[in-house]
Design goal:
By secondary structure, this protein is an alpha/beta fold. Helices cover about 55% and strands about 5% of the residues. The chain has helices at about 10-25, 35-45, 55-60, 80-90, 105-115, 130-135, 150-160, 180-205, 210-220, 230-240, 260-275, 280-290, 295-300, 315-345, 355-360, 370-380, 390-415, 420-430, 440-450; strands spanning about 5-10, 30, 50-55, 70, 95-100, 120-130, 140-145, 175. The protein has an eight-stranded mixed beta sheet, with helices on both faces. The longest helix is centred in the last third of the chain and has 34 residues, at about 315-345. The termini are far apart.
Length: about 475
């Protein structure tokens, strides 16, 4: 039996993707470096399905229809390159290698170019949704060699999650490393969403004295409105989970966050491109701060918490925080799409932002009702500079603004850290300001380093230097930005 596609890597994601493909009437060849896993898979979850196993790569390749489609679901980094090296010895021109792991987009760009030179088509695809998504329908973000897309499109769109209107949460993203780039930004936004929800929990629980049943009820109500999302939904379940002693399990979990690096990649890329991705950056730093547990415990002994108590009722506090959470979420997505716009222009990817929003509406971790409005915004104006200037989001921010400011102020008075709420508001205030104090900053740079400045009464692009002390001379440094 010839397989439509082959998949290498039988960890949880790989197995579930194979089962998903088989459910959609595709025949799949399975291989794993540890061959015993192939036997266990065939005798277990794959039994009776259109799935065939292979005991070595040569046998695996022989079971595939041409052009051969090989999907790698292995650990990002060296293992991907090692398998690609082995596969290129067995594949022919026109065959396709798909990296479905969590690879960094520069690696995907490099692999795309190297394989293109050998006549092999490469796809680097982001996949989001975890094991549940892989089994029942993930969000899939493929990019790489466009010649490969027609050969994998039917499979990928069949197994992908579907939005409410039935459209698959999968479409072609762009050339080179575009697919994994979009997945990287998705993960960065995920970092931001999670941290915002954690901050909402913190101020409700500590500042408003919400019990865990009250938290679960509040998040259940939020999930019926504009905040309807997967992360809000799972959080309400987390609040309701009790440990074996009948007490909330969340109280027993150590407050030290882990991370796998994709949020950090997003922040670094934003710095490289000069884009103010402040909220995701703060979300990454919040995880870093959480890791300093011993230092935080020691510092807590040196400083007393503020004695301020909120005068807001629980209902009013929850209302304010829900609006602040929604407004901050808009900022996070606005920043993420601004970053993708810049990357698209610099790499000539021609990203379709409405299509990306659609891909994120189902299957993935950041799936939410909210993304439909982002799609509508970019459908109306594909060249939209920022979601903040779209009429719908302008109205939503205006509606939430007073509650947002109240929440940030309450957090500061209570001594409860709200890094993402606060930076979102600061970004908004900066973005809506026609005049910022960067004129003073430019004067300082020119004063100590003769770095020059532009003038408001002269055309842009003309640079000037002032001999501020009368003794510094009139020679200026060259003008450049990094």
């Amino acid at each position: 039996m010839q397989a439509d596609i082959g998949l290498i890597g039988l960890a949880v994601m790989g197995q579930n993707l194979i089962l998903n493909m088989a459910d959609h009437k595709y025949t799949v060849a399975a291989f794993n470096r540890t061959v015993s896993k192939v036997d266990e898979f065939l005798a277990g979850p794959a039994k009776g399905k259109s799935i065939v196993g292979a005991r070595d790569l040569k046998e695996f390749i022989s079971k595939l229809k041409k052009p051969r489609r090989v999907m790698l679901m292995v650990k990002a980094g060296d293992p991907v390159d090692e398998f690609i090296d082995l596969l290129t010895l067995l594949l022919e021109k026109g065959d396709i290698i798909i990296d479905g792991g969590n690879s960094h987009f520069p690696d995907s760009q490099r692999r795309y170019e190297a394989l293109k030179a050998k006549g092999i088509l490469f796809i680097g695809t982001g996949i989001s949704g975890g094991e549940e998504g892989a089994r029942n329908g993930p969000s899939i973000m493929p990019g790489g060699n466009p010649d490969a897309w027609p050969h994998v499109k039917p499979i990928f769109q069949a197994i992908a999650a579907k939005s409410d209107d039935g459209a698959p949460c999968c479409d072609w993203v762009g050339e080179g490393g575009a697919g994994h780039y979009v997945k990287m930004v998705h993960n960065g936004i995920e970092y931001g969403d999670m941290q915002l929800i954690c901050e909402a929990y913190d101020i409700l629980h500590k500042g408003g004295q919400f019990t865990f049943p009250e938290l679960a009820k509040t998040f259940t109500e939020w999930n019926r409105g504009a905040l309807d999302s997967y992360l809000i939904e799972i959080t309400m379940h987390i609040f309701s989970k009790m440990d074996t002693d009948g007490k909330p399990l969340l109280e027993k979990i150590l407050d030290v966050a882990g991370q796998k690096g994709t949020g950090k990649w997003t922040g670094i890329d934003a710095l490289d491109r000069g884009m103010p991705l402040t909220l995701i950056g703060e979300a990454v730093f919040a995880r870093c701060l959480s890791s300093l547990k011993d230092e935080r415990v020691e510092a807590s002994r040196h400083y007393k918490a503020p004695t301020y108590k909120t005068s807001l009722s629980k209902t009013d506090l929850a209302t304010a925080i829900s609006h602040a959470l929604y407004a901050s979420k808009i900022i996070s997505y606005a920043q993420g799409f601004m970053l993708m716009r810049t990357a698209s222009e610099e790499n000539k990817w021609k990203l379709n932002f409405g299509s990306i929003a659609l891909m994120w509406r189902g299957g993935c971790i950041i799936r939410s009702k909210f993304l439909g409005k982002i799609k509508e915004a970019y459908d109306k104006n594909s060249k939209l500079a920022s979601l903040l200037v779209d009429p719908f989001f302008e109205g939503e921010i205006t509606r939430c603004e007073a509650f947002w400011r109240k929440t940030v102020a309450e957090g500061a008075l209570l001594g409860i850290p709200l890094p993402c709420f606060s930076t979102a508001l600061s970004f908004f205030d900066g973005y809506r300001s026609a005049q910022l104090p960067a004129n003073l900053l430019q004067a300082q740079r020119d004063y100590f380093g003769a770095h020059t400045y532009e003038r408001i009464d002269k055309p842009r692009g003309q640079f000037f230097h002032t001999n501020w002390t009368g003794t510094g001379g009139n020679v200026s440094s060259s003008t450049y930005n990094v």
